[in-house]
Amino acid sequence: xxxxxxEPHLLDSPRGREWPVLPATRxxxxxxxxxxxxxxxxxxxPAGLAVASALWHHGVRxxxxxxxxxxxxxxFFDRVDLLGQRVLRSPYEHHPGVEGYRDCELLDFxxxxxxxxxxxxxxxxxxxxxxxxxxxPVDVFEAYCRHLAASHHVTERTWRGSVREVLPTSxxxxxxxxxxxxxxxxxxxxxxxxxRSAPDTWWGGGHPPRGVSYWDEPVPPGGKRLAVVGAGLTxxxxxxxxxxxxxxVHWVVREAGERYQCADVNSSFFRPEGRARFDGxxxxxxxxxxxxxxxxxxxxxFRPMLEAAEAEGRLVVHRGKAITKxxxxxxxxxxxxxxxxxxxxVLALGTTPSIGDGLMPDDAVLDRGGWPQLDERTFAYVxxxxxxxxxxxxxxxxxxxxxxIDGHRVATARVAATVAENLRRDTPVRTAAKDHxxx
Length: 439
Ligand SMILES: Cc1cc2nc3c(=O)[nH]c(=O)nc-3n(C[C@H](O)[C@H](O)[C@H](O)COP(=O)(O)OP(=O)(O)OC[C@H]3O[C@@H](n4cnc5c(N)ncnc54)[C@H](O)[C@@H]3O)c2cc1C
Description:
The termini are far apart. The protein contains 13 helices and 18 strands. It is of the alpha/beta class. The chain has 2 domains: 8-195 and 352-438, FAD/NAD(P)-binding domain; 200-261 and 297-349, FAD/NAD(P)-binding domain (3-Layer(bba) Sandwich). 44% of the residues are buried. It is globular. Strands 1, 2, 3, 4, 5, 6, 17 and 18 form an 8-stranded mixed sheet that branches. A 5-stranded parallel sheet has the order 8-15-9-10-11. Strands 12-13-14 form a 3-stranded antiparallel sheet, with no helix packed on it. Helices cover 30% and strands 19% of the residues. It has helices at residues 46-57, 74-82, 106-112, 119-129, 138-151, 233-244, 272-275, 283-293, 303-311, 362-365, 395-398, 405-425, 427-438, and strands at residues 36-42, 63-67, 158-160, 163-168, 173-177, 181-189, 193-195, 212-214, 225-229, 248-253, 315-319, 323-327, 331-334, 339-341, 344-347, 351-353, 380-381, 384-389. Bound molecules: flavin-adenine dinucleotide (FAD). Flavin-adenine dinucleotide binds next to helix 1, strand 2 and helix 2. GO terms for molecular function: oxidoreductase activity. This is FAD/NAD(P)-binding domain-containing protein. Residues 38-254 form the FAD/NAD(P)-binding domain.
């Protein structure tokens, strides 16, 4: 049997190249959003961008997007660039453009910019056109997100603010940020994920000791020996950057071995039949499915490079050994009693969904083992029907692909249609709330 292993050179797309600029996109003209709106979206990542674009197509234009950073998809590209990631893991079919409204598809957008693409990138477009797996340059995806934000007037409806509270009532939702508040008919939480912290047992909890950092923090230059802890794509990027800098990299993988896979999760979860496995099954079955299918893995493109580095001794892989302790200086203590002394250690322990706890009252989130209780069809919070979730927080309703760009598309289609329908239905109440907010 022939095994197709895509080549590592597919990972090397240029980053930050000159891109034809879009007609001037206006940022929000006022420092603060209006006090009232139809919908507030918290989070301007790929999920928030997808929701705002879909609402625009549904004719819902009185939308306020609030994001800590205020830049559409800002955190996503900051994280990707920090890791030196040049291509997405998801194919051309997965993008925040709105289904059913003839939005320019990511693939067509890339073809429109043929002149700035490399021969390798052009061949990947041909692969996608032929229905094969394809690799998308981050540059192309970033320009596409900018195109969506401009063409759906999202940038001018986005304000920088750190949301502290989301207070739902029976007919409105008040979103309180650090500098302003907005009261709206509905809120959509597109909060994304935070990094998973190390167990308290490693160094007693709190900030990591000197010489230890997390994947979403810069790795300090210098130092001969680098340790990377984790088995996912993020770890692979950190390792390949360390090797490219000439460092001796120690890779600690708790599992018996690293796993290679095309997509983040089993690709069936990007299709209706995969998602259907989460429909109507018990909570414990969903948790079991999530545990079985939301597991760390690496794109195949990395395999030849990592295996060669290990064979040459530049990469030392500590397989099947969990970390028990991390001591300053830095030393990683493994469960077999061995010690791995390094100059710096980077932890890529995965992510946890931001579900709205800490923002909304507990009886709105109804947190169950780290997951909110959502309506399976509309993704509305069961405890706060005017608040919706799109992104990782919708995992238990949509399946493990909820955190991914394609999962956003599926959730967005349902949430935007529901919100638009609700707004159409309760127009009279809405005018009252807006007036209330304007008083
Ligand atoms: C390095 C990396 C690479 C990835 N690559 C892919 C890929 O190739 N394909 C794929 O399908 N998926 C990928 N993913 C998974 C997923 O698509 C990304 O995590 C994506 O960023 C999720 O989009 P999001 O909008 O849900 O969250 P985010 O992009 O994280 O956006 C959430 C936004 O909400 C803001 N926010 C959160 N809380 C508040 C608050 N209280 N107040 C104000 N703002 C707030 C955050 O600051 C952030 O800007 C990747 C993830 C990572 C980390």
